Amino acid sequence: MKLTTRIVNLQLRHTFTIARDSKDVSPVVITEIEHDGIVGTGEACPNRYYNETPEAVAETLEGLSPWLAKKSPLAYEHFLDEAAERLGQHRGALSSLDLATFDWVGRKLGQPLYRLLGLDPRRSPKSSYTIGIDSIDQMVEKIHEVPDFRIIKIKLGTPRDIEIVRALRDETDAVFRVDANCAWSVEETLEKSKELAALGVEFIEQPLPADQLESMEEVYAKSTLPVIADENSVVPADVPRLSGKFHGINIKLVKCGGIRPALRMVHLARTLGMNIMLGCMVDSSVSATAATHIGALMDYLDLDGPLLITNDPYRGVEYVDAQPRPPDRPGLGVESRGAAPLSESA
Ligand code: MG
């Protein structure tokens, strides 16, 4: 097969701020594989937190070209195992190739990915919509921009966390989830969990830094709210060691290496009795649509990437009353919006 990559700069609707980072542009790597006249498309949103850059992801993938020239994606279990071995820690690159492979296989077999996996996307949970850190006025305004979304994920990790949630609670009776992105201590988490529970928050995502996993035992035992691992939940091998420290995990395709490792994480978490969330980065409709195909396996979805950008180069996922649905087309079902000037996404 033949592989090509290109870097696309996705423009954010609003500056997106979390506890450790702020951005206006999200560069992603779009990967296409071509084999037997069929093209499969994938995407990776490289994350500085995981030491990835778009250039490095593209370069790593293109380095596979001589090996790929002799490969077919059809027996994908074997093909992706070998790819994973060659790519090692480059999981963003692996994810981009994994998504392109599943898109290709679905197109080749003439079926949407969810059907190949035996899933019914109408059983998917509704998605949350994420509000980044901003002035309280701006955060209130953002909530009113998405009235269809009745689950709001609020980024926290500021000196005014409780004040923010209280102000937002005055505006809406939507379900709230909060993400501290590693910014809290054990004491802060326990204290805030009480106040946040009283404000109708459902759970807390990643309160402590990832290197303080042992301290999560105390949080797990004493927190008023359930805690979900994100920065601690990267690859399948992480899942068993999170049992007894978190109530659930957040899976992201680009962190773990795509659909195949994501499915392994689902099975491990279910075996251990943990809840599962599927999240995204600020990425285009390619990644978000890929995620919708396995959405029915999840307890919680956070797939709002395409809603946060203004120049999505693809169309695919549709939000039906905040439930993200994959298209009923073969593979991932994504379509390029073409060479026309990239306008506001519909
Ligand atoms: Mg998170």
Question: Describe it for me?
Answer:
- There is one protein chain.
- This protein is an alpha/beta fold.
- It has 13 helices and 15 strands.
- The protein has helices at 54-62, 65-68, 76-87, 91-109, 113-116, 136-145, 161-169, 186-198, 216-222, 239-242, 253-256, 259-271, 285-292, and strands at 2-18, 21-35, 38-44, 129-131, 151-155, 175-179, 201-205, 227-229, 248-252, 275-279, 300-302, 314-315, 318-320, 323-325, 335-336.
- The two termini are 34 Å apart.
- Bound molecules: magnesium ion.
- Magnesium ion binds at residues 179, 181, 205-206, 230, 250.
What structural class do the secondary elements suggest? alpha/beta
How big a fraction of the residues is strand? Answer: 15-25%
- Percent helix, as a range, is 25-40%
Q: What is the terminal separation in angstroms?
A: 34 Å
Radius of gyration: 19 Å
Order of helices and strands: EEEHHHHHEHEHEHEHEHEHHEHEEEEE
Number of strands: 15
Oligomer: single chain
Q: How would you summarize what this structure contains?
A:
By secondary structure, the protein is of the alpha/beta class. The chain has 13 helices and 15 strands.
